[in-house]
Amino acid sequence: MGLISSLFTWPLAPVRGVVRLGELIQEQVERELHDPAVVRRELEAVEEARNEGRMTEEEAAQAMEEILARLTGVPGEGR
Predict the structure, then answer these.
(1) Is there a domain that residue 1 lies in?
(2) Does the keyword Coiled coil feature in the UniProt annotation (predicted)?
């Protein structure tokens, strides 16, 4: 990049940095949402809550459906 173009694009550098930071955060969130280990821990937590009586059968079933829908990527569910 030349000196002149650097001078004109320099004010946009913070904006580019913020956009890139947003992209990195989105990538990390997507990775965590679809990570099988995270999903398994969430399913185990729901099962534990159901066994301890902190959740009803219906609430546990609904929570499990949402978690599995998020893993499988069923559109419109789990969001």
Answers:
(1) no
(2) yes
Give CA–CA dist 29/15, Å, rounded.
Answer: 21
- Assigned domain for 62 exists: yes
Nearest to 39 by CA among 75, 69, 77, 79: 69
Q: Alpha-carbon distance 23 to 52, whole Å?
A: 39
- 10 Å CB burial of residue 67 (0-12, 13-18, 19+) is buried
Residue 33 belongs to domain spanning: 9-72
**Each residue's pLDDT tens digit in the chain (79 positions)?**
578 887 788 888 889 899 999 999 999 988 888 888 888 999 999 999 999 999 999 999 999 999 888 877 765 544 4
